[in-house]
Amino acid sequence: MLMILQILSLLVNVIVMLVIVQFIISLLVMFNVVSMQNPAVSAIYSSFDMILAPLLNPIRKMMPDTGAIDLSPLVLIIGLQVLMIVIGNLAVY
Fold first, then answer.
1. 22, 28, 36, 60: which could form a disulfide with 48 (CB 3.0–4.6 Å)?
2. Is 8 exposed, middle or buried (0-12, 13-18, 19+ CB in 10 A)?
């Protein structure tokens, strides 16, 4: 059971890191530090978007429209952390 918990924890940590990196890239694009015309930036961002879209799109559909601010990555990170706490506590018993 501990091994499964550790693997799940690793996957959650990878997803959280991907969300953070995608957020940073989107901020850099928004403030014109990097351009989506750059093939490397475009490839990295689209790759992260393909990985994270199945997780973020259902959250985006449930959340109210907040304009330019997308809070779905924050909700995903908090939800994953809550899930890990619940699973960790269930593994103790």
1. 22
2. middle
Q: Is the pLDDT of residue 92 over 80?
A: no
Structural domains in the chain (count): 1
Q: Which of 44, 55, 61, 45 is nearest to 12 (CA)?
A: 55
Domain with 53 in it: 2-92
The pair of structure tokens assigned to 36 is: 């989506």
> What angle do the packed helices 72-92 and 2-30 form, to 10 degrees?
170
Round to whole Å and give the CA distance between 75 and 86.
Answer: 16
Whose CA is closest to 79, among 21, 8, 12, 22? 12
How many CB atoms sit inside 10 A of residue 2's CB? Answer: 7
